Amino acid sequence: MDFALSEEQEMLRNSARDFLTKECPKTLVRQMETDEKGYSPNLWKGMADLGWMGLVFPEAYGGSGMTFLDLAVLIEELGRAIVPGPFLPAVVYCGLPILAAGTDEQKKHFLTGIAKGEMILTLALTEPSATWDAGGIIVKATAEGDNFVIDGTKLFIPDAHIANYMLVVARTKEGKHKEDGITLFLVDAKSPGIKLNPLKTIASDKQFEVIFNKVKVTKRNILGKLDHGWAVIQDLLPKATLAQCALMVGGSQQVLEMTVSYAKE
Predict the structure, then answer these.
(1) Of 128, 145, 144, 146, nearest to 136 (Cα)?
(2) Residue 144 contacts by C-beta under 8 Å, 6 or more apart in sequence?
(3) What are the distances in angstroms from CA 163 to CA 87, 124, 146?
C-alpha cells in the first residue's frame, strides 16, 4: 500500500509551509501568548484567503470540497508552525458537525462564514466532570415557547472570548440511556446570561469556563434532531482526535528538525 502524499497534497503542504514560515514566525507565536485575543486577525484573514478554513466544505458554501486527509496534511503544517488561533474549534469541532447535521440554511450561514474567515465558532462540550462521554452532560436546556433556556457550566472551552457562536451540548430531557435527551444548540456567544472566566494554562492558550445563566436560544438554532444530538458528537470525536494528533505530529516534526540542526552545530 502506498502511503505517500498525492501531488496535490504535496503542493498543499509546501504552500502552507512557505506561507507560515513567512507569516507566522516564532516571534508572532510568543506575542500571541500574551495577546488578549490570542490570535492574529491578519494571519487569520490570510489563511481564509488561501481557502484553508473551507478546505473540506463543499464549493456551494465557499469551500474546496477536499478530503479529511487533505485537511490533516494542512493541520500538520499548522502544528509545525504552532499557529495560534481557533482553526480546530471553528473548522473541525464546529464546522464538521454543521456539515453533517445542519439544515441548508444553517450550512449556508455558518459554513460560508467560517470559510470566509468572518465567523469563529467553538464547541462547548466538556463540563466540570471533565469527561468526554454522554454521562458528563449536565448543563440543561429547558423548552420555553419558541426558545430553549440553557443553564449550567462548561469548562475548558477554547477561544470562547473571540467566538461568534458556540456549539453547546446540553441535556433537554432525561432518557433511559445517558446518550438520550442530548441536543446541540448554535448559541450566539454574546447572548445575555453568558459569563466567561479565563483559565490559566501551561501552554498559554485561551481556554475558558463558560457559565450559562438562563441563556435563550431559538429552536431554529438546534443542530440536528431534538434529544438525539449525541450521535453527532460521537461522529465528531474520532475526527477531532485525529485532527489534534495531526497538530501534535506537526509540532513534533518541527522539534525533531530543530534538535537535529542543533546537534549538527
Answers:
(1) 128
(2) 216
(3) 11, 11, 24
Q: What is the pLDDT of residue 42?
A: 97
56 Cβ partners below 8 Å, 6+ apart? 63, 64, 65, 66, 67, 68, 70, 71, 91, 95, 96, 99
CA gap 16, 246 in Å, rounded:
14
β-bridge mates for residue 142, sequence order: 149
Cell of 260: 537535529
Full pLDDT tens readout for the chain, 265 residues = 778 889 999 999 999 999 999 999 999 999 999 999 999 999 999 999 999 999 999 999 999 999 999 999 999 999 999 999 999 999 999 999 999 999 999 999 999 999 999 999 999 999 998 888 999 999 999 999 999 999 999 999 999 999 999 999 999 999 889 999 999 999 999 999 999 999 998 888 999 999 999 999 999 999 999 999 999 999 999 999 999 999 999 999 999 999 999 999 9
- Is the distance from CB of 17 to CB of 78 less than 8 angstroms? no
Which candidate, 16, 96, 13, 14, places its Cα nearest to that of 61? 96
Evaluate whether 176 touches 132 at the Cβ level (below 8 Å).
Answer: no
Residue 135 DSSP class: G
**Helix-then-strand count for the chain, H and E:** 9, 8
**Inter-axis angle of helices 41-49 and 7-23, to 10 degrees?**
160
| Residue 124: exposure state from Cβ atoms within 10 A (0-12, 13-18, ≥19) | buried
In angstroms, the CA 28 to CA 40 distance is: 8
Could you give phi then psi for residue 92, rounded to 5 degrees?
Answer: -90, -55
